[in-house]
Amino acid sequence: MFRSQLLPSMAVLLLSLSPSLVLASTKQDYIDHTLNASDVLNQRWYSQDDGLWQDLWWNSGAIMATIGDVALSNNDFKQTAIDIYSNSLTAAKAANGNTWLNDFYDDEGWWAMGWIKAYDVTQDTKYLDAANEIFNDLLTGNDATCGGHWWSKEKKDNTAIGNELYLAVAASLANRMDDGTSYQKYAQSQVDWFLNAGFLNENNTISDGLNVTDNCERIGAVYSYNQGVILGALVEMNELTGNSSYLDIACEIAHAAIEQLATPNNGILTDVGYPKGPDPTGAQFKGVFARNLMYLQKARPDDDFVRFLQNNADSIWKNNRQADGQIGAFWQGPLQNVSAAAHSSALDCLLAAAAVSS
Ligand SMILES: *[C@@H]1O[C@H](CO)[C@@H](O)[C@H](O)[C@H]1NC(C)=O
Ligand SMILES: *[C@@H]1O[C@H](CO)[C@@H](O)[C@H](O)[C@H]1NC(C)=O
Ligand SMILES: *[C@@H]1O[C@H](CO)[C@@H](O)[C@H](O)[C@H]1NC(C)=O
Ligand SMILES: *[C@@H]1O[C@H](CO)[C@@H](O)[C@H](O)[C@H]1NC(C)=O
Ligand SMILES: *[C@@H]1O[C@H](CO)[C@@H](O)[C@H](O)[C@H]1NC(C)=O
Asked: In the record, which residues are listed under signal peptide (predicted)?
């Protein structure tokens, strides 16, 4: 670029940066943004017929938790969430052959977490029953070669996400069932195994898997959602046992993830697929981290987490949203790859920013 072209654009940049302190978003802005994004999500993608968003399966399980968190912090949205839960409990199950189960334990885990959130919002035990029905099937995957939990019913892969979701479901049920003893036993043995299995790497982040044919060596990239589900699971473990070491570990992972997945990109959370683009459903990952960081922030407040969430929410709103409110896959922009997965993922971050702002 020629110097003469660079100077004017830099001047514009400086002008647009300097008033931003004055224009910083308020808590009310983040709440307004959250509610707009929630309404757009449901109007654009939710189907009454199959009870899913954009016909996506595991993503819709994750979105069940997202809308529950929106409802828990915004009373005006509560009835909308209740209506969706009530419809999807029948319609989504029917769309999947009248079962919550499929060949992927992680898919089942997302749905179990979604129904646990529905229970938190409604206090209706039929949702806890759905989560428990799923958990009973998860127990059939509890015999992986390296220990821990299989990813799919083929029983060939040992992944961080499958293991984290299994832990999160077991610990969450232990905290909510009348008699949580057996769930606690499963959660405890899973967390003891997981934290020492090798997923947690030398950079304090979680790698994607273990190689079951090569001595359980860690393999794969560092994805944002693997740094996310574990945070919520460890928050549940702290609540379950009163052992605050779980929060210490969660804080280390959260700081490392922010440092390594966001800091090199001006503080904006970025998955390893960028800039080639994550697959459309992988756009869900970043929101999973943001939402679980919100749970950690409630249990163990940290200004770094607040700044991270606000910064990312601001960027989503400014750089990654089209005029009608639909949101794309890259939180730093430019706007592209709009989908229910990308949009709901961004919604997780908008909500988290609203929840942690004062
Ligand atoms: C840890 O970080 C270093 C430096 O960025 C990198 O080379 C290495 O691959 C990372 N380790 C893992 C397991 O991701
Ligand atoms: C697992 O280890 C085996 C043997 O070293 C290797 O052939 C294979 O590529 C590894 N799998 C992955 C997914 O890295
Ligand atoms: C608390 O959890 C940590 C992490 O798993 C463990 O090392 C420690 O032994 C636990 N403390 C107690 C009192 O159980
Ligand atoms: C969300 O906001 C956009 C403008 O930013 C507006 O066009 C759209 O109608 C709003 N949608 C809803 C459902 O409120
Ligand atoms: C994402 O958007 C880019 C730019 O429009 C496009 O080239 C690419 O095919 C899209 N990716 C997916 C998975 O839709």
From this structure: 1-24
Place of tokens 């938790």: 65
Burial of 7-34, coded b for 16+ CB within 10 Å and e otherwise, reads eeeeeeeeeeeeeeeeeebeeebbbebb
Contact call for residues 221 and 272 (beta carbons, < 8 A):
yes
The structural domains of the chain, with segments of one domain joined by +, span 1-45+281-358
Cross-strand bridge partners of residue 327? 321
What contacts 27, CB < 8 A, 6 or more positions away?
A: 354, 357, 358
**Could you identify the atom of ligand 5 that is nearest to the CA of residue 278?**
13
**What's the order of all strands across the beta sheet hosting 209-211?**
158-159, 209-211, 217-219
How far is the centre of ligand 5, averaged over its atoms, from the C-alpha of 294 (Å)?
Answer: 30
| Residue located nearest, by CA, to atom 11 of ligand 3 | 243
Q: Which pTM was predicted?
A: 0.94
- The rounded average pLDDT for each run of 10 residues, N- to C-terminus, in the chain (358 residues) is 34 41 80 98 98 98 98 97 98 98 98 99 98 98 97 98 98 97 98 98 98 97 98 99 98 98 96 81 96 98 98 98 97 95 98 98
